TrEMBL record:
It holds the Pfam family Trigger_N. Involved in protein export. Acts as a chaperone by maintaining the newly synthesized protein in an open conformation. Functions as a peptidyl-prolyl cis-trans isomerase. Keywords: Cell cycle, Cell division, Chaperone, Coiled coil, Cytoplasm, Isomerase, Rotamase. The gene is tig. This is Trigger factor. GO terms for cellular component: cytoplasm. The keyword Transmembrane does not apply. InterPro entries: PPIase_dom_sf, Trig_fac, Trigger_fac_C, Trigger_fac_C_sf, Trigger_fac_ribosome-bd_bac, Trigger_fac_ribosome-bd_sf, Trigger_fact/SurA_dom_sf. It catalyses: [protein]-peptidylproline (omega=180) = [protein]-peptidylproline (omega=0). Residues 1-129 form the Trigger factor ribosome-binding bacterial domain. Residues 242-278 form a coiled coil.
Length: 394
């Protein structure tokens, strides 16, 4: 096998092959036989069409498929000879033919060669869990807010009240902005601080001018409304499909416990990823980074763009590098996922895999093995709990 390797980087190679045209003949014969088995031509039985007719009708198809088979065969031989593991699809850069030679160039991205050490006994940090009663109170207050009603009041406006007003913004003696019957929340941080201060204590029918920077805000208050929070009782519980307040509290506490456990687990995983990424630097194949990048775009319902690439490419690189580190540790510790474990998950899933079932099974196997490896590392780590600040509602 005659070839020349051009080193683009540690993980990117271009390889130029030179092959005798005679080596293409077996592949041409193989493709001819494949077509002959399936082609149906009037006047001939299936599988009995003469070879010269097949060649005449499908010359280009036969040659293209034969060349693809030849190229793939040489590519596979090269991977085996060099002990390379491909990171993505191979790219055909050039294909040339003369009277007796075929020359083609491939671009190959391979997995990096690296080692991971000192990954046992890592010091991982997590915050102490929040008291469940605190989470319950926060949840209840948020639920009350979401089920709140409003009513008009003649009292002066206070923080969290709603004020409906007409607004004019004057700048350079010209009306720069004009709005009618807009409703704002007193204390809303999106409003200028001076405007918020002016709204506190204001009443229906009041007209006022407020100087803010180089603009003058003219407001005419049409209505002041106060927020009415529901009482925490059985009637409130009914709104949330619970028989009584005791059942609601039990449900909230159970959900809070699960949510807090998940949050603490995420903190440990983030701490683990941060340490492993700081200790292990190596080039990551672009195809793996792009895979993670596309997942991020899909999760956020975004399209590929230069701005999104600038925002997320580094995050995708870290995710891809972390995955490679975890895979290397799994190999060293012989952590595997059996077929029966994968099939158990698939059987429980309500989604039917219609296409590329083999690919889906291997992808799921990777996910399960990754989870096992992370469990292994956390179980063999030193967990340090940190105090956390939280301010209970009054």
């Amino acid at each position: 096998m005659e070839y020349n390797i051009i080193e683009i980087s540690e993980i990117e190679k271009e390889v130029e092959f030179l092959v005798s045209k005679e080596e293409l003949n077996p592949y041409l014969d193989e493709e001819l036989e494949k077509l002959r088995k399936d082609v149906t031509i009037k006047g001939y039985r299936k599988g009995r069409v003469p070879k010269n007719i097949i060649k005449a009708l499908y010359k280009e198809t036969i040659r293209t498929n034969a060349l693809n088979s030849l190229i793939n065969q040489y590519y596979q031989k090269l991977l085996e000879e060099k002990n390379w593991q491909p990171a993505g699809d191979v790219e055909l850069l050039k294909l040339e033919e003369d009277d007796d030679k075929i020359k083609f160039r491939l671009k190959i991205e391979i997995m990096p060669d690296f080692n991971v050490e000192n990954y046992l006994g890592l010091e991982l940090f997590k915050n102490k869990p929040l008291p469940l009663e605190y989470i319950y109170e926060e949840t209840i207050e948020n639920l009350r807010e979401s089920y709140a009603s409003v009513r008009e009041t003649d009292e002066p406006a206070a923080v969290d009240n709603f004020v409906t007003l007409d607004l004019e913004v004057i700048k350079d003696n010209k009306v720069n902005e004009q709005k009618k019957d807009i409703t704002v929340k007193v204390g809303d941080r999106s409003l200028p601080d001076d405007l918020n201060r002016a709204l506190v204590g204001i009443k229906k029918g009041v007209k006022r001018q407020i100087k803010i920077d180089d603009s003058t805000y003219r407001i005419n208050v049409k209505r002041v409304e106060e927020k009415i929070l529901p009482q925490v009782d059985d009637e409130f519980a009914h709104l949330l499909d619970c028989e009584n307040i005791e059942e609601l509290k039990k449900r909230i506490m159970e959900e809070a416990k699960e949510k807090e456990e998940n949050r603490l687990r995420e903190e440990l995983e983030e701490s683990l990823a941060r340490i492993l990424l700081e200790r292990n630097h190596f080039p990551v194949p672009k195809s793996l980074i792009n895979f993670e990048y596309q997942l991020i775009l899909k999760a956020h319902n975004l399209v590929d763009s230069e701005s999104n690439k600038e925002r997320f490419w580094e995050i995708a690189e870290k995710r891809a590098r972390f995955n490679l580190i975890i895979e290397k540790i799994a190999q060293k510790e012989n952590i595997k996922t059996e077929d029966s474990e994968v099939m158990e998950i698939l059987n429980k899933s309500s989604q039917e895999i219609k296409e590329d079932r083999k690919g889906a099974i291997e992808y799921l196997r990777k996910i399960l093995t990754k989870a096992k490896t992370i469990d292994f590392l956390i179980n063999n780590a030193v967990i340090i709990e940190q105090e956390r600040l939280f301010i209970p509602r009054r």
